[in-house]
Amino acid sequence: MSSPCLSIKNMTMAYGDFIIQRELNFTINHGDIFVIMGASGCGKSTLLMHLIGLHRPLVGDVFYGEQSLWQADYKARQDLLRRTGVLFQSGALLSSMTLAENVALPLTEHTCLSAQRIRQLVSYKLALVGLAGFEDYYPAELSGGMQKRAGLARAMALDPEILFFDEPSAGLDPVSAKLLDDLICSLRDHLGATIVIVTHELASIFAIGTYSVFLDMETKTMIASGPPKKLLAESKDPKVLRFLTRGASESSSFSEMKHKHEIL
What we know:
Strand content: 15-25%
Number of domains: 2
Structural class: alpha/beta
Number of helices: 10
Shape: globular
Strand order of the largest sheet: 6-7-8-3-9-10
């Protein structure tokens, strides 16, 4: 059995007195492509901010292995977070820097490697995401899909154990989104990384998700967890089924959709 990589225990998230989600409990195992899903506004990206140390929970904690993220002191927390890489929704590349400079930034900030070694690593990371030869390009000179891949190269700069993605397919055409999904699977398989993805893109959820949690905006808690295809096949919760079928669960096409994903 896979061992826990991240554990979320009794966590409640809030902005001031406004509760976003409460009593969250789930585990992300090593090697998972773990999907955080739910309707817009349910708190998916907010949960991601809690997992990567940008927002402290009102109650509860996040554990990296057996180490508490939020009970740790500042230095220990930074050491834990250095094991992670993050691809934000927009790619978040610095527009005044070339791709090589963007990818090199974590290496210059957090290592003592020589300039030559950093250049070699930058070229390698860009090659991994299909951007060999684009070192001297600026973000504005790239397509949206290429910017996402460049952001992924930067997220991988320090060889993280865990990669976090916030809406990685947002704004991409279907072909570019499929290529990014394939790249995510390749990184998991060849680099041994654990992947955590915030998304509501059903094509990606069913194509690459190995496990998932569903956040509900009305009850302000998670109402389902499991492999996405299994949730589609077995869940009895109408909210979950409406989301996973784009409302088709209320029509005659629901059984056809379930059959399609059972085949896949």
